[in-house]
Design goal:
Blueprint (H helix, E strand, L loop, with lengths): L11 H29 L9 H13 L9 H33 L1 H16 L6 H8 L3 H26 L2 H9 L4 H38 L5 H9 L4 H29 L9
């Protein structure tokens, strides 16, 4: 049985190798196709060479804009992260509050579950024009878009997690005389908070999607705005570093949340994803 592939597990060196292997393959393919295109057309902009990428990265990181005197890359990062953080914070508070209430209180579950289910089916990007009309083209509409896109998922996920809790816990708490608020604060929340962190981790991808889309349509700064601005000039040497930076930020957020879960909730079984 030990020779079967499903029972073999890589050691730490093997995990590093197999984890890095797809990235190495992707880089090799990029270099090959870039060299082929540049050999055919030295002015090709679709797949810039490493030297071109290096110069562009240095320029966007350490060279101030000639007109404004600002470092646009870091300014864009600051605005995007602030918008994303605000949207996730509001969605987290709403998701936690309504999710726990829906899972614990039957009357709330009966009243909110159908509404949340329908709300979760509405494509957030479809209501973006409505948000721009209602909240304007400023920061508020972008934060509201992220909130609308993430909150229904968190509410439904947390409500399901509450429903999966052993019924004995709630029965024992009530037997000891705990009120509804005491049950929520002392029994439910300690079990749900680590699940909430997992839900936020799973929401990072959609949250970035909503943010980039909103910035691309109506913004004067931000990572999404800059990417779509550079698209007009086919500046792939700028677009690719921006995309890589967004990916890194999302990965860093996911890694941080995973570390927080392991640090404060070591009893939680994590899948390591």
């Amino acid at each position: 049985m030990s020779r079967r592939l499903v029972n073999r597990h890589p050691d730490r060196t093997g995990q590093f190798f197999w984890g890095a292997f797809p990235f190495v393959i992707a880089i090799v393919f990029y270099l090959i196709f870039s060299a082929l295109r540049l050999a055919e057309n030295p002015n090709d902009k679709l797949l810039p060479g490493l030297s071109t990428l290096g110069k562009s990265i240095w320029g966007i990181l350490f060279v101030a804009d000639a007109r404004s005197g600002e470092y646009l890359f870091w300014k864009d990062t600051l605005y995007s992260v602030a918008r994303l953080g605000a949207g996730l914070a509001v969605a987290t508070l709403l998701g936690l509050g309504f999710g726990v209430a829906t899972g614990v209180v039957p009357y709330v579950r009966a009243g909110l579950s159908p509404f949340i289910a329908v709300l979760s089916m509405i494509p957030p990007m479809a209501v973006l024009p409505i948000l721009f009309i209602a909240f304007g083209l400023g920061e508020q509409s972008k934060v509201v878009l992220i909130t609308i896109g993430i909150t229904p998922f968190l509410v439904r996920d947390l409500a399901l997690r509450v429903g999966e809790m052993p019924g004995e816990l709630l029965i024992k708490a009530q037997t000891l005389g705990a009120s509804t608020w005491q049950i929520i604060l002392r029994v439910v929340l300690p079990q749900i908070v680590p699940r909430l962190l997992d839900g936020i981790r799973l929401s990072l991808g959609p949250a970035w999607l909503f943010l980039i889309s909103a910035e691309a349509i109506a913004a004067e700064n931000g990572l999404g705005y800059r990417i779509f601005l550079m698209r007009r000039y086919l500046a792939m040497d700028v677009i690719l570093p921006y995309v890589a930076w967004i990916t890194f930020l999302a990965f860093a957020m996911d890694w941080s949340l995973r570390k927080i879960s392991r640090r404060f909730f070591p009893w939680l079984i994590l899948d390591g994803a």
